[in-house]
Design goal:
The chain is mostly beta strands. The protein has two domains: 136 residues, Immunoglobulins (Immunoglobulin-like); 52 residues, no CATH class. Helices cover 9% and strands 42% of the residues. The strands form four sheets. It has a five-stranded mixed β-sheet, with no helix packed on it. It has a four-stranded antiparallel β-sheet with strand order 3-5-9-7. β12 and β13 form a beta hairpin. The protein is elongated. The chain starts with 17 loop residues before the first strand and ends with a strand.
Length: 209
């Protein structure tokens, strides 16, 4: 008998759609290796688009109705993507036949006002009329390839939260292309654009580190 089990979502884990066979859990569908390997760099210029294709494979004797969407890695909401970014799946809704593979094309469109940054994005396959899903990561680079070691914009807490959680000022990290300063009024750390740093210091808003 088919039963679906939802595994709580944590960083680095997934919602899993599974069936129980002899008390062991088997995923009823999966993304093929070209997507499962993770950290796929997808580079898209502003006011441009890029695409990739990936496979989904059935691992059950029953047909599965799936819907696909993309979201920031720490969310499962369909509406949480970077501003100016749109993901289009072709098809978005599909019926995955028993023990068959299906290829999906993903088109990523980026407006000219989207921020230059690297983002950790989750590709989510959800079983219709169910809260169970499978999520795998891709790495979206807007404007240029920031490289595998760059910190994704949505991977870091804001500097004040890092500070209040006990991180020392010297250890606080800023996201891509931002630099750290100390706010003069309260000695709290802040991350600002390099082009703004000197102006903020001159105006007495910030102290350099």
């Amino acid at each position: 008998m088919l039963s679906f089990v939802m595994i709580p979502l944590l960083m680095g884990s997934i919602f899993a759609a599974s069936e129980t066979v002899n008390e062991s859990k088997i995923f009823v569908f999966d993304f093929k290796d070209d997507l499962v390997d993770g950290d796929i760099p997808l580079v898209v210029e502003q006011n441009s688009q890029n695409e990739l294709s990936f496979g989904i494979v059935s691992k059950t004797d029953q047909d599965i109705e799936l819907t696909l969407h993309a979201t920031l890695w720490d969310s499962i909401s369909e509406n949480k993507l970077p501003s100016g970014v749109k993901f289009v799946f072709q098809p978005e809704d599909l019926v995955l036949k028993s023990h068959q593979n299906q290829t999906v094309k993903l088109l990523v469109l980026v407006d000219d006002y989207a921020r230059f940054a690297k983002y950790n994005i989750g590709i989510v396959g959800m079983i219709k009329n169910s809260e169970t899903a499978l999520k795998v990561p891709i790495s979206l680079h807007i404007g240029k390839d920031f490289g595998p070691h760059a910190i994704a914009l949505n991977a870091l807490a804001p500097p004040l939260i890092q500070y209040k959680s006990g991180t020392g000022v010297d250890e606080i990290k800023c996201t891509l292309d931002y630099v750290k300063v100390i706010k003069k009024s309260n000695d709290f750390p802040a991350c600002v654009k390099p082009t703004s740093k000197e102006k903020l210091i001159e105006r007495g808003w910030a102290n350099p580190i």
